[in-house]
Amino acid sequence: MKPLPVNGAFVWGDDAPWDGPIAEALLSRVEFERRWGPPHASDLEGKGLGPEEFWGWRAPCGFQFFVRYLRDEDTFSIFAAVDELDHALAHLDWWRGEVRWRLDEHMPRRKLGWAVYRQDDTGNRHDVCVMASRPHAECFARLMEARAHKQWYGVELRGAPPFRPPRPRDGWFVIRQDEHGNRAEVAVIANERRARELAAALEAEPRHKQAYFVEPAETKG
Length: 221
Known about the structure:
seven-stranded antiparallel sheet
């Protein structure tokens, strides 16, 4: 996995994390750093929770998530989309009872989308989870199969493909403008903060004589 950038704007896209942690784990900080290295970012204030340290990654399948460590509580928390919790645990290799709390424990699970199922050597099958993203589901299945004994994992569609809403025609336009004043619409995003994050991320790339900015969609002629 590649560390997520810690400087400048970062855009989550469709797999934006839940507003808070989706799981909490207890494990050795020394062992965690031995495997994953020092924190990618830190916050000494911690928004009232005490000093915080963060690790963030992007997996080859495109899945993005991060882990927070609270020094005062000596606990780790996972931040990701709720449906991706098992995927995050698989990448972290947390199989041995590290997780002491998970948000989805009493939540209804997704029923439509890409199911990751387990099949044993006698042909018995069992759904592990259902995810919105096929590449993420296939990545999770490979991780599970790599540690399984006499079991294999597959991915298949349950119901219709996950619904992707049409691009909004209201909200916030991300606009690209070249040195001649020519403008092009890059994206329409309902949330102003995310639109500005995307514009800032594009602006930070080494592009030649192009500028990116955000304006309310209703003002575009």
